[in-house]
Specification:
Immunoglobulin-like, TIM Barrel, Glyco_hydro_b, about 25% strand, 10-stranded antiparallel beta sheet, GH, single chain, alpha-glucosidase, signal, binds 1-deoxynojirimycin, endoplasmic reticulum, 10-stranded mixed beta sheet
Amino acid sequence: MVKHENFKTCDQSGFCKRNRAFADTAAATSSWTSPYALDPTTIKFKDGKLSGTILKTLSGGDEKVRLPLTVTFLESGLARVTLDEEKRQKGDIVLRGDSKARKERYNDAHTWAIVGGLDVSQGAALNEKVDQGYTRVFYGEAGKHEAVIQHQPFGIEFKRDGVTQVKFNERGLLNMEHWRPKVEKPVEEKKEGEEEKKEEETKQEEPKEDESTWWDESFGGNTDSKPRGPEAVALDISFPGYEHVFGIPEHATRLSLKTTRGGDGAYSEPYRLYNADVFEYEMDSPMTLYGAIPFMQAHRKGSTVGVFWLNAAETWIDVIKTKNSANPLSLGTKGHTDTQTHWISESGLLDVFVFLGPTPQDLTRQYGELTGYTAMPQSFAIAYHQCRWNYVTDEDVKDVDRKFDKFKIPYDVIWLDIEYTHEKKYFTWDPLTFVNPDKMHKHLKKRDRKLVAIIDPHIKNTDGYHVIDELKKKGLAVKNKDGNDYEGWCWPGSSMWVDCFNPAAITWWKGLFKYDSFKGSASNTFIWNDMNEPSVFNGPETTMPKDNLHHGGWEHRDVHNINGLTFHNATYQAMLERKKGEIRRPFVLTRAFYSGSQRVGAMWTGDNLAEWSHLEASIPMVLNQGISGFPFSGADVGGFFGNPSKELLTRWYQAGIYYPFFRGHAHIDTRRREPYIPGAPYTEIITQALRLRYQLLPAWYTAFHEAATTGAPIIRPNFYIHPEDEKGFAVDDQLYIGSYGLLAKPVTKEGADSVSVYLADDQPYYDYFDYTLYQGAGKEHTVPAPLEKIPLLMRGGHIIPRRDRPRRSSALMKFDPFTLVVVLDKDGSAQGTLYVDDGETFDYQQGAYIHRRFSFDGKRQIMTSTNLNDHRSTAKLDNYLKSMAKVRIEKVIIIGAPKEWKTKKQVIVSEEGAKESKRKIPVGLEWFEASSGKASWAVVRDPKVGVGRGWKIDFS
Ligand code: NOJ
């Protein structure tokens, strides 16, 4: 059970409490007006950017705080709003307690999170229409977007095609806690007998605002010194007409976010984003977890919009939904629901991007343009990973490896947790248990398998360990509030933390991974970064004190949620430079993350439990990662804590094959549970599941390529594929793989022998294995799911690439032939793509890849393969194509094949560039009649066409 008392509630987090109270006061005050006004005389508009000054009127009315505002209109159709505080910006404040911290609000989150998409719109234009009290700007494609900026009180409405989609400060909750000096109140001595009277007096003297957490704050025995005083930034953002909001991972919640302030089944706490090592985290909770992506999207029929709140400090988000019933007098108008959100961060700038869609695809693409797309992984990284805490010796590793082979179970990567190190000193091997790491690596290399070793950010503070010596000597550790090296407690005991905000720390870190430095590592070693929230066992909320200091003088408070990304990034950079000339795509798994982490690796959902509820929750959690720009994600298969029953373990593998990052992992106190352990029939069933993952690796790899080039999720929720289907918006227990129409519904209930699958549209859906037909839009369909059966459907209209030969690792499939499964739609047509590259290097960036579009034209009864690689011939491309020249399509299966093919015995195949004599080759066609609810199907065996070539198969 999670220890709630270790983590703050909103009430225990001063700034959250203050801002929620502010919201309550606003709601309870009928005459409430936001005290923020944009001074019209300061407004300037130039080159797509509006600037001005907002004045915050303090109670009493005379004093005003100056807040510089910018609203930038971007070429991509986004708008970015920033608000700073002039006094802090100018450094015109006094820090308390000799603090060495910076004086400004943190303004550097973009350096870590943003990599593009900032081109300013040249077409954005002020609307000259005179409208007292408002400034209007048209922007976006063909000026379809409009920002209506109200001066007093300040607020912005963002419109698309004249309809308001997003509103800032509608409820008047904008709140920039401005700097003020602490006024020390004289402490009067109490005289006996005066007790009660005194209390009365103090009550009356108390200021309206609750100052109790302005100057310092204690929790769990730790006191935060808060040298800059209160500095929160908060804003309400409304989505009128939107009932569903998604995103803001990481929480163990459903995809469609519940309300947090009253209403059916509401949470009582806001969603919290404050990366933390939450031991035995609970289900269905807005509690914070290990990572944070402050990107939220709102969805309704015909429209998806969103906001990205670029702030790295502790953040809380309230979600409120208001149902507006239909007005009985206005016939025909339906009631609708509005969603209002309230964003509250402890410090930093207000910096918000507004997305106006209108499609879910626009949102993921534009968010990816800003924060970067998923790095294209090596092909092994999307195969199966076998981990546990711990494989205890190098012999143990080899033994596990041999057993996978003995049982003919495919796997690619074996992992080492912290016990491989010598006394928890990273970059060392325990001399008694890992006697010969070189030999171990060589053993794995035989089947082209890899090893992932854990390297955490806490460095053991002990004598005679070169890493800590260098860290201290070079001054690269995170500092405490007094500017000395911060010392805390983690796995190794007393430790210090490398400060990867510091470029010099990254340079140093890179050196540690060179083969001659990290002795015993090899070209098939890859890295796992854990505990990078950072986890500090004796720190407040199991992390660092907020008044710790990072490079540049920023307080930990300001950068906390980015911390994990900086460490992950440093390791990624290091893996690029292990050896001169050896440039391969790194693989680094992280636990903590922020917007942008997708550029440097994969994540997993941390320490889950071997319970059915955790298996169930993993699906919406991984789906949410996908639509939030970090799709290379997965959960520990089998559950980290505890021992799963054999049934649960089996079902978890059957679900885990759909995690983009697919790894079995277990706690040190659990029993062994490698897939060969449970025995009959479980081992065989798990093996079949693993084979299914391996068979579909071509589809997965293509889906990763799509994510890496368009920002699309790898597994996709119903609303993303069917954005018009209102009934399915909240469906989050089934998923589509890439653009393939492969619809999976993992079994997450004990004892189930069927599942019900929701079909959003009226295309035919076929069972993956036996082609049973399911059809009927907007309905649940019962699909059998006895233990040995994985519920997986294929939607009509898609062509799915596979590799059907079972192998021991994905590397051994590199030159295997492909099978194409053509699933015909209602009109008898289908389409699909395939992306293949060397799976290892960056040559694909110079065009060395195969990218094909396969189409089956139902009218002409012709199937074609056309080229999608628009690179011109280069040496790299030509060499790659040469290496793949013999790789062919060995089978084409057509599901829903028309009856007329019954008598057809052959098709005509032609390949581009073939010799005259080899053009138009007849190849046999076999047709199989539909039986009891199943589709008829046909197969073309060995059309002898190359996967990298253009070709045509004529079925007419
Ligand atoms: C915590 C991680 O979440 C878990 O996966 C790992 O096994 C332990 N740390 C030990 O390194």
